[in-house]
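Translate sequence into structure tokens.
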Amino acid sequence: MESKTNKLSQRIRKLTAASGVNCTMKNSTYIPNYIPKSERIINFIWGICLVIYAIYGYFMGELYMPGRRGTEGTTFTGDNLVMIIVAMFLGALNLFITIVDHYDKRDNEKNYKFISRIIMFFSISLILGAFYEGFFPSITVTVIQS
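Result follows.
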């Protein structure tokens, strides 16, 4: 177990040296978050693609999400479209936050994780809401008064 800890601390020192940053806190040495360049590039490209597809859907008035393996996809229009577009923008924002977290060398990774979880919760809620409204649009509640 001790050798794993030594290997981990050596790897952390190596990554820290590669980033060129060594921040010292009061009683301990803080090591900033390191996100590999390939992951940052992929997050940036995916984020831009999400934003472009959301803008395309907004101007076209509908957004098609393909299904899996030859099944029919889903087309979002109206309120469903708005919910999906907002979810896509939030998803792109979440990807961009990961990139910003890499360049921010302060000791605030907990804040980034917290914000990321909140954004993910709202994104998933909007996606589920859009699908729910799309599949059950005509359910109405009748109130009977006596």
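Note: The chain has a mean pLDDT of 79.
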